[in-house]
């Protein structure tokens, strides 16, 4: 069976989705839509349709939604009504109410509703999660993330929390296998935009793991790092390069008493792992396809993405209340 795909949104992300859908086994990109045209020239021989209604009329089985966040709900709800399996770019929607409506619409129709949290398909995080599940770190104590870079011109309708921190919230709960229990945050506006461009957030998961997120659009270099600290050492993922390094607690005794007392643990072996590194977006589309075909459940569901939205909103609410702790 070949799935007929439609793509709406031909911007900076849409062009990469088009490339990956065309390369996806068992899929055919049969229709694309964008009211603003095709500035990246990704349509090829396909007509650039004006809206989601025209996309639906093309007769599609599945759709990828890569329009601005503010349009996610309107577009996705029409696709659900038409019986089209749909994946939307993260975040799920602009508001919790939109998110709930989307979850209900797809679940009531028995359709696959997925959200493009592509970091879950990053090779370093997949390998990290596997090793944690196998017990390499023993008991996990803390997860910290840093996601910093200059301001991206593609973003117009949200701040750094909904655009970037949402990745860290999702991947942290996924890696740890636990939901958030509480969160506290502070934000700042430094670039004279309507939305925040810097956030620092800290909290605790239901399983007791402490978390910390540092995210901004003000750093003159790009950094994407996730560190999971446990009783046997730390796993450090560089998701820009897809690298994973293990810093093991040392087993050799320290002869220098002052350093031994200060460090608590000694430095052991440092191992940088070699493993297959595939493009995360390609893996993400495979997960979506397999869910449609009933062959897998590795996609990020809209219900999961709604939970992430609730944490993200709590981050913004906490910051507005000068860091007041929010509980779930």
TrEMBL record:
The keyword DNA repair does not apply. Residues 3-117 form the Gfo/Idh/MocA-like oxidoreductase N-terminal domain. Gene3D superfamilies: Dihydrodipicolinate Reductase, domain 2, NAD(P)-binding Rossmann-like Domain. InterPro entries: Gfo/Idh/MocA-like_OxRdtase_N, Gfo/Idh/MocA_Oxidoreductases, GFO_IDH_MocA-like_dom, NAD(P)-bd_dom_sf. It is an enzyme of class 1 (oxidoreductase). Residues 126-235 form the GFO/IDH/MocA-like oxidoreductase domain. Keywords: Oxidoreductase. It comes from the Bacteria. Its EC number is 1.1.1.18. GO terms for molecular function: inositol 2-dehydrogenase (NAD+) activity; nucleotide binding. SUPFAM superfamilies: Glyceraldehyde-3-phosphate dehydrogenase-like, C-terminal domain, NAD(P)-binding Rossmann-fold domains. This is Inositol 2-dehydrogenase. It comes from Trueperella bernardiae.
């Amino acid at each position: 069976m070949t799935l007929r795909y439609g793509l709406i949104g031909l911007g900076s992300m849409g062009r990469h989705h088009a490339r990956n859908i065309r390369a996806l086994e068992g899929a055919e990109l049969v229709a694309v839509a964008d009211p603003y045209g095709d500035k990246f020239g990704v349509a090829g021989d396909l007509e650039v349709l004006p809206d989601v209604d025209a996309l639906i009329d093309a007769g599609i089985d599945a759709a990828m939604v890569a329009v601005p966040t503010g349009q996610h709900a309107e577009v996705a709800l029409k696709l659900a009504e038409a019986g089209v399996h749909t994946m939307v770019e993260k975040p799920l929607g602009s508001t919790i109410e939109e998110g709930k409506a989307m979850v209900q619409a797809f679940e009531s129709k028995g359709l696959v509703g997925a959200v493009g949290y592509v970091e879950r398909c990053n090779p370093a995080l997949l390998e990290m999660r596997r090793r944690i599940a196998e017990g390499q770190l023993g008991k996990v104590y803390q997860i910290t993330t840093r996601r910093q870079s200059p301001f991206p011109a593609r973003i117009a309708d949200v701040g750094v929390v909904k655009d970037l921190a949402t990745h860290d919230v999702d991947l942290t709960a996924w890696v740890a296998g636990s939901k958030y229990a509480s969160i506290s945050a502070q934000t700042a506006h430094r670039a004279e935009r309507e939305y925040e461009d810097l956030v620092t957030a800290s909290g605790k998961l239901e399983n007791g793991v402490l978390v910390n997120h540092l995210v901004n659009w003000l750093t003159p270099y790009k950094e994407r790092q996730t560190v999971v600290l446990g009783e046997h050492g730390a796993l450090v993922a560089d998701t820009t390069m897809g690298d994973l390094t293990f810093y093991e607690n040392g087993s050799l005794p320290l002869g220098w008493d002052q350093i031994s007392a200060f460090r608590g643990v000694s430095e052991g072996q440092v191992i940088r792992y070699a493993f297959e590194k595939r493009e995360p977006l390609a893996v993400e589309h495979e997960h979506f396809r397999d869910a449609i075909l009933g062959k897998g459940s590795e996609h990020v569901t809209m219900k999961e993405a709604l939970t992430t939205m609730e944490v993200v909103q709590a981050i913004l609410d906490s910051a507005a209340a000068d860091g007041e702790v929010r509980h779930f």
